[in-house]
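[Discussion] Sanity-checking designs against the backbone

I'm trying to build intuition for which residues belong where. Below is a structure token string of 349 positions. I'd appreciate it if someone posts a full sequence so I can compare it with mine line by line.
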């Protein structure tokens, strides 16, 4: 990708940087040493310095999927590598290389205005491009893995850059090789592959209902119409982090065996679930939490969002421990009532 020619090789160091506006939970956090990464070449020397000083370190993208402690000691790498460029095009596909620091939703908008449809179902997901392969973001019947050709990352074990193919990334529901190996990789660029043959995907219940209510023709909606629909549905269901701090779904939807599902459905015939691979079932965590009576509940400064029980919100001055105390209560209640374990989705640093 074309990068600024004279960009400095050493990243800018910002001491004691407040990160309240750089984490969507809106937690009061101070980073002892923040380094602004604007190009991949800055990473090897910085990682050397970090190793020499034995600093703890972590990468922060959009801060939309993390729970941060009041002080982040050591080094915090602010991922600001930008830029997007079509690198290759053949009869069937277009390839787009994107910097890890690009804002995800802005990228989705950009692809639509550049006639590269495919990501419209993933509109309005907060965060940066570099974070998307880590937890394989997904919404409304689409996962980002379907569009990723490869991911380039600095491998802190071998101290070299590596390009991992889609297969190497081992994508699964909210999971990947990067998530399985925390603090090994620093994602710098993602290569997306857009098939030229585009198909509307509106089978997901909320979207299907939206278009059934709206449309009086049998024609498939356009990518832009799907984008607009997803934005509207998400805005209605999920709190805007600029207004009330949150990190989207706080728990993963738990996957249970067919056997456990059969026992559950007998006892709780209204339980909401979706088929999963190998006969397993994915349960709607939001439903389980809602049934345990948590919707709108508050504990200290943390609360369960009143319109969607899967989302924990910051009512103003919450700390990481307020949020985690509430999460623990929810996990215990769901375990007790349904015998199901809920895993926390955001990374706890
Ligand atoms: N439900 C309730 N009460 C609630 C919330 C949900 O009964 O308070 C029921 C709903 O009625 C519905 C079911 O639970 O029948 C599922 O709810 P919903 O569709 O709202 O959410 P989800 O399928 O569990 C997932 C993703 C979201 C993504 C949506 C749309 C996970 C953990 N979450 O939610 O992702 O936007 O599907 O595809 O997989 C995120 O990861 O941050 C995120 C928002």
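Best answer:
Here's mine. Compare freely.
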């Amino acid at each position: 990708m074309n990068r600024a020619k004279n960009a400095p090789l050493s990243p800018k160091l910002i001491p004691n940087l407040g990160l309240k506006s750089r984490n969507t939970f809106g937690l009061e956090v101070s980073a002892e040493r923040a380094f602004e990464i604007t190009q991949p070449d800055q990473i090897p020397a910085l990682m050397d310095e970090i190793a020499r000083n034995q600093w703890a370190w972590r990468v922060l993208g959009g801060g939309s999927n993390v729970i941060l402690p009041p002080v982040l000691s050591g080094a915090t790498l602010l991922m600001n590598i930008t830029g997007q460029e079509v690198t290759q095009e053949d009869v069937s596909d277009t390839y787009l290389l994107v910097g890890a620091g690009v804002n995800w939703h802005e990228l989705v908008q950009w692809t639509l205005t550049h006639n590269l449809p495919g990501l419209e179902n993933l509109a309005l997901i907060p965060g940066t491009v570099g974070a998307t392969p880590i937890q394989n973001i997904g919404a409304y019947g689409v996962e980002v893995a379907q569009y990723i050709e490869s991911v380039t990352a600095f491998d802190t074990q071998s101290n070299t850059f590596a390009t991992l193919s889609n297969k190497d990334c081992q994508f699964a529901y909210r999971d990947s090789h990067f998530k399985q190996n925390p603090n090994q990789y620093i994602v710098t660029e993602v290569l997306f592959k857009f098939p030229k043959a585009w198909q509307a995907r509106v089978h997901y219940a909320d979207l299907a209902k939206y278009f059934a209510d709206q449309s009086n023709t049998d024609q498939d909606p356009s990518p832009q119409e799907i984008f607009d629909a997803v934005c509207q549905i998400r805005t209605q269901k999920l709190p805007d982090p600029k207004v009330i701090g949150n990190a989207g779904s706080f728990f993963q939807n738990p996957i249970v065996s067919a056997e456990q599902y059969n026992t559950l459905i007998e006892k709780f015939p209204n339980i909401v679930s979706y088929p999963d691979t190998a006969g397993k079932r994915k349960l709607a965590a939001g439903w389980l939490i809602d049934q345990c009576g948590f919707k709108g509940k508050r504990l200290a400064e943390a609360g369960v969002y009143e319109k969607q029980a899967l989302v924990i919100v910051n009512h103003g001055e919450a700390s990481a421990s307020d949020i985690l105390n509430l999460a623990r209560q929810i996990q215990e209640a769901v375990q007790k009532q349904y015998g199901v374990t809920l895993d926390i989705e955001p990374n706890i640093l």
